[in-house]
TrEMBL record:
<dbReference type="Pfam" id="PF00881">
    <property type="entry name" value="Nitroreductase"/>
</dbReference>
<keyword id="KW-0288">FMN</keyword>
<comment type="similarity">
    <text>Belongs to the nitroreductase family.</text>
</comment>
<keyword id="KW-0521">NADP</keyword>
<dbReference type="GO" id="GO:0016491">
    <property type="term" value="F:oxidoreductase activity"/>
</dbReference>
<dbReference type="InterPro" id="IPR000415">
    <property type="entry name" value="Nitroreductase-like"/>
</dbReference>
<protein>
    <submittedName>
        <fullName>NAD(P)H-dependent oxidoreductase</fullName>
    </submittedName>
</protein>
<feature type="domain" description="Nitroreductase">
    <location>
        <begin position="10"/>
        <end position="186"/>
    </location>
</feature>
<dbReference type="InterPro" id="IPR029479">
    <property type="entry name" value="Nitroreductase"/>
</dbReference>
<keyword id="KW-0285">Flavoprotein</keyword>
<dbReference type="InterPro" id="IPR033878">
    <property type="entry name" value="NfsB-like"/>
</dbReference>
<keyword id="KW-0560">Oxidoreductase</keyword>
Length: 210
């Protein structure tokens, strides 16, 4: 745990990446697995994770992300896109996955499926979208922690215009919406932000024990 806390103090939202340094395939695979294993409400994972490697696409996305240089300079660009619809098939596919993975009859999961459907399917559409978007933040948390362990920098971003990114990537046609952006790579030695002390609330100010 001491290493974990040390790495949390090491990480920060990198403002300038070294464009010459690339994440290895092995480390990228580890980060993808960390995202895949993230916690999610009901276990549904109602989102897709898009890794944008095409430099032309990244150049198109940059203006939609307030012109931030990390979009084009980082080793990798990741889009967390929440599903805009939660339907019966969303839950049915998940139940099928449980049945296959755990080698149990799908019929034995009918009660759980019906419970999820009763809680999710009747929600207003805007509420569903807020809920699916929140799930992407859980996945981002796993990415941030895993990357810090590997000494890989991650800059999480909410500074972008979702509609523009959706249009560039054709996400609307896929029933997806850009919820979060994360750029991954290695900090540039000229990024002075890395030398700043981390500013957080003290434990006394942050926590309330009842």
């Amino acid at each position: 745990m001491s290493t974990f806390i040390e790495n949390q103090n090491w990480r920060y939202a990198t403002k300038k990446f070294d464009a010459t340094k690339k994440i290895s395939k092995q480390d990228l695979s580890t980060l993808k697995e960390a995202i895949r294993l993230s916690s999610s409400s009901y276990g549904l994972q109602p989102y897709k994770v898009i890794i944008v490697e095409n430099p032309e696409l990244r150049a198109k996305i940059q203006p939609a992300a307030w012109g931030q240089s990390q979009i084009v300079d980082a080793s990798h660009l990741i889009i967390f896109a929440n599903e805009t619809q939660v339907e019966e098939k969303t839950i049915d596919n998940y139940i099928s996955n449980i049945s296959t993975t755990r080698n149990i009859p799908a019929d034995s999961l009918t009660g759980y499926a019906d419970f999820m459907k009763s809680k999710l399917l009747n929600l207003p559409e805007d509420t569903k979208q807020v809920w699916t978007s929140k799930q992407t933040y859980l996945a981002l948390g796993n990415l941030l922690n895993a990357a810090a362990e590997l000494k890989i920098d991650v800059t999480p971003m909410e500074g972008f215009v979702p509609e523009q990114v959706n249009e560039i990537l054709g996400l609307d046609k896929l029933g997806l919406n850009t919820s979060l952006i994360a750029t991954l790579g290695y900090r540039h030695e000229e990024d002075t932000t890395q030398h700043y002390k981390k500013v957080r609330k003290s434990q006394e100010e942050l926590f309330i024990t009842l």
